[in-house]
Amino acid sequence: MSSAPSDSSLPVVIIGAGLAGLTVALHLAETQPVIVLAKRQLEEAATAWAQGGIVGVLGSDDSIDSHVKDTQEAGAGLVDERAAEFIARHSAEAVEWLVARGVPFSGDPDGPLGLHLTREGGHAVRRIAHAADATGKAIHDVLLAEVKKHPNITLREKWMAVDLITNRHLRKSEQEHQDVQRCHGVYALDIETHRVETLAASAVVLATGGAGKVYRYTTNPDTSTGDGIAMAWRAGCRVGNMEFIQFHPTCLYHPQERSFLITEALRGEGGILKLPDGTRFMPEHDERGELAPRDIVARAIDFEMKKHGVDHVWLDATHLGEAFLQEHFPTIHARCLLLGIDIAKQPIPVVPAAHYTCGGVVTDLHGRTDLPGLYAVGETTYTGLHGANRLASNSLLECVVLGRTCADDIQGQIPASAPNVPAWDESQVTDADEEVVIAHNWDELRLVMWNYVGIVRTTRRLERALHRIKLLRNEIDDYYAAFRVSRDLLELRNLVDCAELIVRSALSRQESRGLHFSRDYPRTLPVSFPTILCKKPKKKDAWLP
Q1: Other CB atoms closer than 10 Å to residue 279's CB: what's the count?
Q2: How far apart are CA 50 and CA 542, in angstroms?
Q3: Would you call 66 helix, strand, or coil by DSSP?
Q4: How does pLDDT run across 357-405, given as a tens digit for each residue?
Q5: One of 127, 156, 238, 294 is an active-site residue; which one?
Q6: Which one, out of 44, 182, 274, 449, has a CA that is 20 to 30 A from the CA of 218?
Q7: Per-residue b/e over 374-391, b at no fewer than 16 CB within 10 Å?
Q8: Neighbouring C-beta atoms of residue 202, cutoff 10 Å
Q9: Antiparallel, parallel or unpaired: β 360-362 and 381-382
Q10: HSE (side-chain half, CA atoms, 13 Å) at 98
């Protein structure tokens, strides 16, 4: 088979077309060619699902120190202060960059930069710039339109990364000329033609989002299958804090809408959580009530649901008035109305659901991973910002700030000599004969994670989950080795990797902290550290916590 040509002007390949990927692409494209891969429609990135907003330290009543303090408190003692301070310091610049691009943030003539700032749980002051209650979509639409027009950016829709190309993929003659292990590109599947192409690259950026689809109930889109985390892990990169999966407290509970998020800003503006009999319960769990950090609110709802034997609770915003709700939360108002729920007159049925992956690929503040030539930005990463629980609206901010530093670092690198990268080899596989195996294993994995590795955990549940995951892994690996790849198979392979990383991390943390709550270890230790996993060299399935 043919090999990819050696070329000193190779493109940067960005895997993922959400805010992180598009930010890197726009900063890079002024100096070099960029390829952006999106495994589904370009508009389906998780960014477009974000409702709340983006943090900006802009107001006269705010400060970088205040934002850092709130981030640290939400992160339950595991936030890297250097990361939090760096990102907070560049927050105003990030919002200004988006304003300059034309993002239609909600305005207030008396607000900083003419913006209306809202407040969310865990924040001491109003510092969230937003576009009504559809901020992510507003940002994504603007950046995507700009990217589509840029002559130096090639968008490949319905293309999915199979695996990263590293030294181990090279021929022995090529390996001898490589001084260090590095990333040389990516094997990518054209989902419509079923053809795998070899994409040699000067650098690869993982911007694939989180792993929410590893759970049965999630606010995430179908794209959130942990692809970047799994690929980086298989390539030898460290992974951190995977036990900290954020469950958003308020996902709409409705048979026709299983993934619709009810933004935290609704509670920030005065929404009240109630039991079916109308009793308010949050003050019994935390003095901050509905404005407590997400992990506390999610556990409180989970506790009350189990205590009273109910399948959801109510979020009551009727006292805010119809005019206010239509102005500030038009998306939620309209979507709920279509489902027969008038939020101006009725409380909203809500339930916690897997929302955000606080851990991921270990990177520095320039997006650099352990593997030269490989970068990662956004929810795919562990930078230290989110600690044991992400503060609301810090995620979009992290994408913009570190998307820029990532691009700057790539632009400052001296191009490495490009080896001849072997083409994808399908000579030993055939077409799959039973696709039902994939669907069955997918359903079983997500159910196992939901039942055994959810909001409240025990050691026995985690051990049971790990046992089941190992059995599933064996089936999936056998299937992957025997048949041609498909999107469903690749996503399942990545999800089982992420599931194992989550369980291994949870088993190694013998305390309760932030998003990780264990009945066997209910106390929080006085001193704790991030959970960092890495593979021992030359030994299959070996781990170093």
Answers
A1: 11
A2: 37
A3: helix
A4: 999 999 999 999 999 999 999 999 999 999 999 998 999 999 999 999 9
A5: 294
A6: 274
A7: bbbbbbbbbbbbbbbbbb
A8: 21
A9: parallel
A10: 37
